[in-house]
Amino acid sequence: MTDTTPHADGHANKNDSKDKKKTEPKQIGKALRKAEHSIEILEKRHDDDIEHRLERADASSRLLSSVWDEPPAQLLRFRPGDQLTDVDGGSTPGFPGNKAQGERFIAISSGEIARYQQLLYANGTKGSPRRMLIVLQGMDASGKGGIVRHVFSQTDPMGIHYHGFGAPTKEEQAHDYLWRVRRELPKPGWISLFDRSHYEDIVMPHIYGTFPEDVWRARYDQVNEFEHELVDSGCTVIKIFLVITKDKQKEHFLTRLSDPTKHWKFDVSDLDARARWDDYMAAWQEVFEKTSTPEAPWYLVPADNRWYSRAVVSELLRTSLRDMGLSWPPLNCDADAMRRRLDEE
What we know:
Elements: H1 14-44, H2 50-65, H3 72-75, H4 99-125, E1 131-138, H5 144-151, E2 160-164, H6 170-173, H7 179-182, E3 191-195, H8 200-208, H9 213-232, E4 235-243, H10 246-258, H11 268-275, H12 277-291, E5 298-302, H13 306-322, H14 335-343
Parallel strand pairs: 1-3, 1-4, 2-3, 4-5
Helix pairs in contact: 1-2, 1-4, 2-13, 4-13, 5-13, 8-9, 8-12
């Protein structure tokens, strides 16, 4: 998914590559400073009317997006013909900066996400159906939990719902496979994050044969219809698959085995899944081909560099919230009358 455009002679110019490495960190640093300055002005200006403040917030967010060579929403979106196995988990497509700049971007973006999340929540309290579902998938140790901690570091817990899906319980097995998913969907104004999801109910039987093939294959259409209904009712759906290399996963597993504070993260089943790596890649490839739709697309995000995958998710989330085009709900009473009542106390 990376762009390696050759020169006229058919070969990449090495000097251009060197110049790019020298100049791009400076350029991204300048863009980040501009974005920070714009946000500082926005936070100090309280005399503007609501529409002007929203326009300033939009401009600040777009300035922050300018650090990307190409928007992740375009660059990393799954398209027909894309192959999961072609994605380099160690790459950082679209982001010309280094780790320190990536982490700085996340910190700035997290503050803007908090602003838009509050706006979304405020609208939900006043009857707006707008809400958001973020699906995080990936092989073990791909960094799903870290994304939740870092990208949402500045948000208000009120309005954020996190749920990790494991093996179905006996109660859940007694219902349709989407029953437990529907229970965790976001309420109006809320953002729900799924660490694993209903897609496990397709991938696992595909690999392990726990259901007849006609049963799990029918779920592709069922899931597409389910997500269509969500989007049609005002829910934005963002589906992210974190692409980690097998070598990087091994590195994380060894760290977990060596660090007593991380033993709780390791399970023998992690190695069982690793042994069937190719089967998982094939199953997920089919998922993307069958369920990446215009209204609920999949994004394949390289995740060996966790700062990069967090930056991508932060950008996808912030721009999706921004593009909802929400405004602050108006006061539902006479402000002057309320002031008089307070003055009369």
